[in-house]
Amino acid sequence: MQIYQAFIKRILDIVFSGIAILVFFIPMLAITIIIKADDPGPALFKQKRIGKGEKLFTMYQFRSMKKYTGYSHAPDGKPRAVFDKIRPMAAEIIVG
Question: Do residues 70 and 49 both lie within one domain?
């Protein structure tokens, strides 16, 4: 790729990224408010990932599970870690 092609590609990347941020800002804000209203924990989940060239980066995504809630005993009497894996609204849709 020649220098002017790389420059044009970089400019287009910045322009289209800016447009995408403006378009998705309102839906992402609404999702954040819904998550915060449902559970007081953080709305975003972050995780370290390995990217191109084995370079480490931090990935952010909306949290879909509630925070760790402690231990419970299973029917066999063994202690188990408890996580709420399904949001209440999703459980209502699945159950009935």
Answer: no
